[in-house]
């Protein structure tokens, strides 16, 4: 592999790896690998995605809060009862809205870079 190709693959995996919806990053990396084919090194993309996982998890709440500010949406309370509401389906609308705020924030960061 060429160094440029490995660097591109690592950057791609890391960039897709910080997407604020847990579990979607592997699918995004797989789609990128399928689209780019031989222009990227698949193991490097997936390794960078795996390495980015702790950063992704630590950025979910900041993305959520900043997305609320950017979009102007309501504040989603992150309490111990919030997980129970999510699992029972009581907070499904709020959760979807919060996820959209986080994705909007992440997209805003990507566009302004």
From TrEMBL:
It comes from the Eukaryota. PANTHER family: E3 UBIQUITIN-PROTEIN LIGASE. The chain crosses the membrane at residues 6-36. This is DUF2062 domain-containing protein. Keywords: Membrane, Transmembrane, Transmembrane helix.
